[in-house]
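Known limitations

Structure tokens in this collection are predictions and should be treated as such. Users comparing against experimental data should check residue numbering before alignment. To illustrate the layout, the record for RagB/SusD family nutrient uptake outer membrane protein is reproduced below. The input appears on top and the generated tokens appear beneath it.
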Amino acid sequence: MKKILILSLLISCSQFFMSCENWFDVNPKSQVKNDILFENENGYKTALFGIYTTMATPALYGQELTMSLLDVLAQYYTINDNYHNFYNASIYNYEASTVKSKFDAIGKTMYKTIMNCNNLLENMEGRQELFSGHNYELIRGETLGLRAYLHFDLLRMFAPSFTVGANAAAIPYVDRVTRTPFPQLTNMAVTEKILQDCEEALSLLEVSDPFGPAADNTEPEDEFLRNREERMNYYAVKALMARVYLWAGQTPKAGNIANELIAHPLLGTNRILFRLYSDKITTMSDDYFTVNSENNLQLSLSQNQRKEFYETEKYESSDKRIPSWLILNPNTIESDANTGRYFVSKYNQNGPMNQGIPLLRMTEIQYICAECQAEPAKGLDYLNTVRHEYGIPAAFDLTKENCVFEEELFKEYRKSFLAEGQLFFFLKRKDYTDIPGALNIENPRKIFCFPLPDDEKEFGNLITK
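Generated tokens:
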């Protein structure tokens, strides 16, 4: 087994940060002085917001891990031209430079963001006196949750699934700032570390998070304590644990957490538990989903895809997702409507259906609970709950007499997570050998595991062999 070692970079290097976001003030030598940054509570808040800002950039959840790359791999879009920036990704040609560069940028940015988490955590140790109220516990809990979240998505991308093996070689788990290399761990070992971070995060957020057991049903006066769905929070950590347990095949534990969340009176069927805010979300969406998008970047669904994915012949007039998340290319003339192209409008609208960049939602928790049921018929009840929330009447309920649970579960994932990047992970976890919409694939498991860099210079010198 090839051994991979990951070298951590000092967080003080200014290259870790995007200067345009003004995260930190840097000295003339372009180095962040931790003793200056972390001299008071506001410095820790600045560092924390910097982590969220990076997560919302195009290289991560602003584009590649939601609306573009991962959904291209899940075959949401029709891409026929070989000059298209995502053409090679759509046919799983991972050796193409356009694809390798995306994988490398994702891995590099993810690990740098994790290192930012580690730097923040290490600079908090023994400094509780700098924080007001429960902000020490809140910031530390959030950061641990973020470190777990980022590692889990790295695991889902760059490691084999648990179907291949719990003891398969996976990724390093980077949990401290050091020049000492980190060894490549197994799937199970990484998962255990993720869950350890989640457990510690929960213990801290339980006593500090206004969106958690510590809530007192009043609007916090402190702006820092508001809009908790836009940051890692108690319920988001719980949801992440359900997602992790399901990935690891531990369905009883996943189901128990999902049931606990569903039973909570404040968490509705489709509520967003964790989303990223970005004032650039419309701009990032417009890169792909408008008539003015560059031809080699434009992404769209065909009319046939829209019909198939959303079963429009049945649900056109009732499913709220159809008119809210898809818009016909405005250049399409009426006579060509049946062959027109549809753009994703999920991120370019006002009102309740505009939900930022969703990373964890109760819809998925309903689906997890459905999957963990011993009886498929009971699982269908959870799918129907989500369908009702989106406007599909009970007359169209799924029953064991009119459908197959696994087929409907796939359909509902595909409907609900358009431009959110989750369908690709569903296909990987389920070990699909025939990916709907894809051409013949010789080795399906290979396309589900992104290749690690060939050269130690990739990922910004983070990896050596």
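For this record: The first strand starts at residue 5 and ends at 6. The CA atoms of residues 287 and 294 lie 7 Å apart. Please report discrepancies through the issue tracker.
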